[in-house]
Amino acid sequence: MLFHTLLLAGTASASCLHGLSKFKRQEGGEGGVPISQFGYTGLIGPLNWASLGPENEACKTGKQQSPINIDQSVSLATERPVVTIEQQPVEFENLGSTVEVIVNGTTSFAGNDFRLKQFHVHTPSEHRVGEEFFPMEAHFVHEGVTDPNQIAVISVLFQMSANETSTPFISGLRPHLAAISTPGTKTAIESGLDFASMINHVQTTELFQYTGSLTTPPCAEGLTFLVTKNPLPLDVDTFNDIKRVVKFNSRYTQNTLGEENLIGVAMVAGTEQQFTPPPVLSPGQGQEQEQEQAAGGEEQPTPSAGAGVREGEGGAAQITSGATVVISEIAGMPTSLLAVIA
Ligand SMILES: *[C@@H]1O[C@H](CO)[C@@H](O)[C@H](O)[C@H]1NC(C)=O
Ligand SMILES: *[C@@H]1O[C@H](CO)[C@@H](O)[C@H](O)[C@H]1NC(C)=O
Ligand SMILES: [Zn+2]
Predict the structure, then answer these.
(1) Is residue 70 assigned to a domain?
(2) For labelling alongside 307, which of 21, 22, 223, 301 has CA 20 to 30 A away?
(3) Helix (H, G, I), strand (E, B) or coil at 167
């Protein structure tokens, strides 16, 4: 419901959802491209997005916020998307908060048909996979054909390549970056971009799937994310050229899905109402009933209890005798341990 309310909130500043028909496009400046009113630093940065407009409420209260650290609790998509992007002239725009390509396409996924509206990039990546970050992430933003309120984002992660080749749809942007180095400008790429290898990648390799939010204001929830498990290659020169124009545009990692918004957590930090993180156990602790904190070992297991618990709401129970903790990962290796605190 929150999502539908937000959709009715009217004009949204240029953002991840830029170009979606439900969010009226702002009038552009002289270059015709609207410049984002939010940013990534200080008072216009992610900690204060909710202050930029009442439609951004979910940025500080939402409990299904993106991006996240993708851990064992996020499952792989059981179906593959079918993606079509015809060769076409595209428009390349600098929104200030990102650079974006307006491109048409279709994606069918899980019985639903989506229209591709645009893709844009984040440097560094917004999602992390098993805590690992990537130098760049591209978001392919879709809206439902029958219900435009339905939004799906295919997220493609990039890794630096050792052989100076980039995925073609990204290397095709490089010659045009100079034309849009200033926020509010755009340029036409008449020859279009080559999406073949990107389409092949998202149709044939594994994708994580979860329901999250826009990673930019208004942070609306109920959005389907499909995130590539394996990154595509990105060469150093292209990365540096993109980074020079895009600059830093990565929202901080949000709390575990379903847990309190981290802004709410921060507001009570260090007070009696604070949220206390679960203890980090060393291997063998718990089951072996070892109490000492083995400092600095490489193999720090991650308790999946994850997001922390509130003092006085059972938080203390997490670290009292008899409490159980499920450990889903040790040093990046999936595992399944049920630890009992002694
Ligand atoms: C993309 O689709 C829109 C709306 O259907 C249309 O107006 C536009 O001309 C299309 N662009 C290209 C390059 O095909
Ligand atoms: C270049 O390296 C990437 C991985 O970094 C690999 O996917 C790609 O196949 C390589 N291309 C060539 C031409 O060797
Ligand atoms: Zn995005």
Answers:
(1) yes
(2) 223
(3) coil
**Is-contact 223 214, C-beta < 8 A?**
yes
Q: Mean pLDDT over all residues of the chain?
A: 84
320 and 200 both lie in a single domain: no
**Residue of 86, 104, 114, 116 to mutate, ligand 1, most atoms within 8 A of C-beta:** 104
**CA–CA gap between residue 257 and residue 275 (Å, rounded):** 16
Nearest residue (CA) to ligand 1, atom 3? 104
Give the tokens for residue 78. 């059981």
User: Which atom belonging to ligand 2 lies closest to the Cα atom of 165?
Assistant: 1
Q: What is the CATH number of the domain that holds 34?
A: 3.10.200.10
337 or 145, which is more confident: 145
41 inside domain: yes
Identify which ligand lies nearest to the alpha carbon of 166. 2
Residue 321 structural domain: 299-340
Question: What pLDDT was estimated at residue 281?
Answer: 76
**Number of independent structural domains in the chain:** 2
Residues with CB under 6 A from ligand 2: 161-163, 165, 233
- Residue 277, domain member (yes or no): no
Residue whose CA is closest, atom 1 of ligand 2?
A: 163
**Which pLDDT belongs to residue 13?**
42
Tokens read off for 42: 């200080």
Tell which one of 158, 161, 205, 235 to mutate to probe ligand 2, the residue whose CB is within 8 A of the most ligand atoms.
161
pTM: 0.79
Neighbours of 22 (CB within 10 A): 17
- Give domain status of residue 279, yes or no: no
